[in-house]
Amino acid sequence: MDSNEWRQEQQRLDLVVGKLEARIVELEPKISQLREQAADIRKRFWDEVTVNTSTDEDFEETFFTINQQTAVLSERERSHGRLLQQWKNMNRLLPSPYFGRVDFQEEGQGITEQVYIGVSSFVDADGLSFLVYDWRTPMASLYYDYPPGEAAFETPGGRITGTMKLKRQYQIRDGHLHNVFDSSITIGDQLLQQVLGQGADAQMKSIVGTIQKEQNAIIRNDNSQMLIVQGAAGSGKTSAALQRVAYLLYKHRERLTADQIVLFSPNPMFNSYVSTVLPELGEENMQQTTFQEYLDNWLASTFRLEDPFDQIEYVLTEQQTLGYEARMNGIQYKASKAYLQALRGYSLWLVKEGMRFDDIRFRDRVLIPGEQIKEKFYSYDSSIRLTNRIALVQKWLLQELTRLEKEEQEASWVQEELNYLDSEQYAEVFNMLHKEQGVFDFAEKYARIYEILHNQRRPDESDFDFAEREEELLSRMIVKEEFKPLRRSVKQFSFIDMVGLYSQLFRDEAAYREMTNEAEVPELWAEICRQTQEKLGRKELYYEDATPYLYLKELVEGARTNTQVRHIFIDEGQDYSMFQYEFLKRLFPRARMTVLGDFGQAIFTQATNLHGMDSPLIQLYGEAATSQFLLIRSYRSTRPIVEFTKSLLPGGDAIVPFDRSGRKPSLLKMECSEKRAERIAADLAALQAEGCTSIAVITKTAAESREAYETLTAGGSKELWLITKNTPTFEKGTLVIPAYLAKGVEFDAVLIYDASPQSFDRESERKLFYTACTRAMHRLLLYTTGEWTPFVQAVDPSLYELV
Ligand SMILES: Nc1ncnc2c1ncn2[C@@H]1O[C@H](COP(=O)(O)OP(=O)(O)OP(=O)(O)O)[C@@H](O)[C@H]1O
What we know:
Elements: H1 3-43, H2 56-93, E1 100-106, E2 112-118, E3 122-123, E4 130-134, H3 141-145, E5 149-155, E6 158-173, E7 176-182, H4 189-197, H5 213-220, E8 226-231, H6 237-251, E9 261-265, H7 268-274, H8 277-280, E10 287-290, H9 291-299, E11 304-305, H10 308-317, H11 324-334, H12 337-352, E12 360-362, E13 365-368, H13 370-379, H14 386-408, H15 412-419, H16 423-454, H17 466-491, H18 498-504, H19 509-515, H20 525-537, E14 540-541, H21 543-557, E15 567-570, H22 578-587, E16 592-597, H23 618-621, E17 626-631, E18 633-634, H24 639-646, E19 656-657, E20 666-669, H25 673-690, E21 694-699, H26 702-714, E22 720-722, E23 733-738, E24 747-752, H27 766-773, E25 776-784, H28 790-793, E26 801-802
Parallel strand pairs: 2-4, 8-16, 8-17, 9-10, 9-15, 11-14, 15-16, 18-19, 20-25, 20-26, 21-23, 21-24, 22-23, 24-25
Antiparallel strand pairs: 1-2, 1-6, 3-4, 5-6, 6-7, 12-13
Helix pairs in contact: 1-2, 5-6, 11-20, 12-21, 14-17, 15-17, 16-17, 25-26
């Protein structure tokens, strides 16, 4: 670009910055004025309204003025909110008003429009000319989708075609032009180079300036019920998901709010990692949760729950223990749709027989026996569905409790309790009685007058007996209080023996088949049954049983659904079972689903393949309602790292590295663990000196992380930070972390603590190893004190350097 053009760009930038500043100055008094007005109206709200309800007209008048006042107030508040949002947007634009520009001539039009694109729109004072277009406007998609030449974009009114004459990118900091790139084929490789060359951060950054075409398609897809993205490690799946949230919030701003969108993250630390992207884009954060959080919410009061990390620890470390194979079969089976159908079959069977109820107990005695509840349950007409029947039983139980509560007032314990009441309870009853006494006195006077008028005496009636009434009321109060928890637990369906119902499924194969309409069982079923029942007996639940248990509970009690949520996003989607997907679909009946994942990183036994026609996920909403996307370009790591990691995976050939140079991965074989610790201490120091501020020493398991942490600290490494599944936030520094917790995040440098066959040998550990290595952005170092894992041995030696 010549200096003349550069000057023109800087002049335009100055112009826009000037207008932004002016607008900010102009907005400020208006905002505070509106804020004060709204506060004032709120304060004086009732002064303006005369409340008079004596006649219908007065009432109407009052109602009308209140409504009017409310309308004025909310109008002021809305205007204030709108201007405040504008003010915030202007301030966000100010340091860097735009990052891109396209010059577009619409077909059949004489003029070429210069479209500048930034994180928010900025319209000139005339209200018509866009000085900056929001990156989410239809026109801005030109920037992401086309090189100069013929181009088109979709609008609500149809497709607009034309010619893109220029495509330009800017790096602007503090209102100054730092770089300008004229790009041709893709969105400026140069700019992307620069962005990707930067260091890792404790928080993810937005990518709006460099969204790639294939990512843009995912971000803007707005017609599928189900959107599935299979993408290589580092291909921008999480990034695409977050920008997609921002896009949806913008496009549907009139009817979609951030709390109607839920993101399921792999772990709480990941939540903190991604939590700043949307605020950076000027949007509120969506709801963020983990599947485990949901399970805990519903089950933690009944069971000690295993979480997915405990489960993976078992899978990785307990191969030698008895029953391992059966547990693995169990994990597979309990994740499947076949098991879900078996449970459905079971729920139909329960309508005929086999329901289990707990006794309702009160003060160490059985008040309503489970057997009696069961009899009641089966006394209803056989056409009534399971959940409706349970509702009827519940209603009956509540009536029974009312009856029993009355009876209970005569019990001797009530008399005893009466002696121990405190003065407050007496005072309450005393007040109640006084009210009653008033009514009694009135009735008494009325009866006397009646006598005189009719000259006849009424039949003898006892007088109001204060003491007797007092005692009666007090007993009633005592029993009522004691029955409250019973009522509550009936309302919460505690009379159903859910644990027994789930456990009964695991009696033996013949019974299971009978109860589930002849469901097939996996191999080693008897052992699976034993393990499951034993665990349940200890009031514990395997991770693989948690969702099925909850599902069965809902089949019996009625489904819980959330109809507010409109979009759910599932990151690391390969780690969810089909069972969990079915469950989520049912839980959020009005939501669309976006699933992002990588089967190459499927480290859990119950993984689901996301891509291709054989992905079972397609069946969830059906083919017509599902769109699939494949991302093969990997942006996170340098080319040499991607070349190395892709060769670890069968089928990894398809992964395309983004062309960023760097050192090949280093392989360091050390004599013993102490030497390795010393070497790692030195390497950490060297990496920090090179400018790496975020480094991870990755191990296979949690136990190994602890061991590595201790050995490395003893070997001279400083300021290490041991990460466990309970670490709530992700921070910069040097971390020691098990591979499965490093999912989704990235580091400047990654050190694989033990790349020997002792750690990574079985085929099932390949993906875990791949996941660990693909966390590296700029440097990857692998250590062993013996042999190399077979996965490394199979890599072409030209792809790494032996140190
Ligand atoms: N278009 C882009 N422009 C700039 N940076 C990008 C782009 N796409 C991805 N990146 C960067 O690449 C890195 C990886 O992105 P992200 O974490 O979204 O990938 P992912 O597919 O979710 O990875 P993984 O499956 O390995 O967790 C991030 O640093 C992200 O900022």
